[in-house]
Amino acid sequence: MRNAIVRFGALYVFNAAVLLLVGLLLPSVRVGWHALWASVILTAAALLIKPLLARAFAEGTAKSAAQRTRLGEKVVQYGSVFIVELIIWVLTVLFSGVTVRGLFWGWALPPVLLLIGWMVYDRIDDRLHAKAGELYDAASSKIGGSRASDSDDKATAPPSPAAEAGREELKDGLTPEQRRMLDELG
């Protein structure tokens, strides 16, 4: 679970930055504050839909790979990657507040910029995951650490004389060590 949260969080932040950059570079794409929601959609599509589409296109193009030259094979591979990116871009635009104008500048060029952004992300992915993992672990230890310190305080606090006398009166057949162990459990 930790790995999935770290992966989603790191990719979300990177996608938000890329979407804002696309909005700044291309006047035909308006992103603005919609980058926050669009990044959720883009990240979910990249993690869930992109692998399925990439596999489907790879299987489809592999059947006719022997009939193409090496250059033709590269063109088909790049074309299928572009189509996958285009589908993800269309889904992002449809389900978020991002607006586009123009066929080339609004629909065709942003998937190329997303692809370049994801290539950069792939290069820094390990370092970004390590830093995000450190942040996640620090937050988890602070949340879990406060609970552990509370229970430690209760366990190490010496019992009051009245509580000690009450335990002795129980005559339950338990030794003091067994009572202490039961107190630590509950």
TrEMBL record:
Coiled coil region boundaries: none
Q: Which residues cross the membrane?
A: 12-29, 35-54, 75-98, 104-121
User: Is Transmembrane one of the keywords?
Assistant: yes
Key words of the record: Membrane, Transmembrane, Transmembrane helix
The answer, when asked if Magnesium is one of the entry's keywords, is no
Q: Which residues lie in Basic and acidic residues bias regions?
A: 165-186
At the top level, the lineage of the source is Bacteria
Disordered, as annotated region:
141-186
Name this polypeptide is given: Phage holin family protein
